[in-house]
Structures are given as structure tokens and as C-alpha cells.
Amino acid sequence: MLDQNSVQIILADLQDSIIGASRTCPPEDIRRAVTTITGVARVLGLPVTVSAAPRPGGPGVIEEIPKDAPLFVRTGPSCWDDEAGRAAIENHGRPVLALCGVTSEIVILRTALDALAAGYQVQVLVDACGGLGERGESAAFRQIEAAGGVVTSVPGFVADMVRDFTTPQGREVIAALHGQTA
Is the pTM of this model over 0.90? Predict the structure, then answer.
């Protein structure tokens, strides 16, 4: 069981100009999963950090990302490559990273492996990820698991943190999982 006080959410390359590159999960499904996980983050008080690739005209993150989430623009394939973004993640003092974004074979893989090497626990939320192709994404997820990461879903991840849906917080979480506002 995950302790919600040990968890933080990392959203990577969830940008209007990039999300359409997903060939393994439709962009509208990724958007729905991001809405769910950020809603759960709000209810549980989980920090959310956003990492974006540089794009002409600015990062252009999807509207489902909370406006108050700190945004870091990096130049490499890993969120860990950006010193300010990495420092923000480290400063939360939460050892479990729930990672999602596009693309699974690049930014998710590289960030997961770098975070695992730095001693973090990593959970990749596949329903909030998109890959360039089934084979490449599957290979990336296998590599993450082989390195000690967990590949799961938004509902599976959340149900590992919140085990009682009858509490006020639990009711808000289950409402978020079912796409409802509490």
C-alpha cells in the first residue's frame, strides 16, 4: 500500500503540439486520465510538477493540467536533465514518482530510468501515457520494470493509496475515478 504522503505526480510533454503523436493511446483518453490523476492529486494534496519540451511559441501544455502546477521547460529527453525541474521534484521530499506523458519510448523511459537510478520509486501510469508505437512502448515499459519501476494504471495506482472509499476523502477520490465532480 502506498502512503499518499510519499507520492508526487510528474506530467511530461503533455503539450498540445505533442500529444497527437501518441499512437498507442488516443489523445482524448490521455486527457481524461490526466484530468483524473490531477483531480485525485488535488483531493489528496499530492504535488504536481510539469516538464515540457521547448516548442515554438511556448510550451503550450494541455488545458487539463492545473494552472498552478510548476512548469519546467527542458532541453533533453529526461525530466531529470533539467536542473531546476529535478530540484523541484527533489525538494518535495516524496520518494514515489507517478509519471505520465508522451512519449513513452523517450521522455517516460528516460525519466523513469534516471529517477530509479537516483533512488526514487517510479510508477508509470500507462493510461496517461502515449507511445509512438505498440512495440516500442512495450519495450520501454519492460525496460522500466526490469530496472525496478512499476507499470500500472491511474485507477490501480489510486486504489493502492486510498483503501477506504467510504470516508469523505475516499468518496471524492472515487468520484474523480468515475469522472464526476465531488
Answer: yes
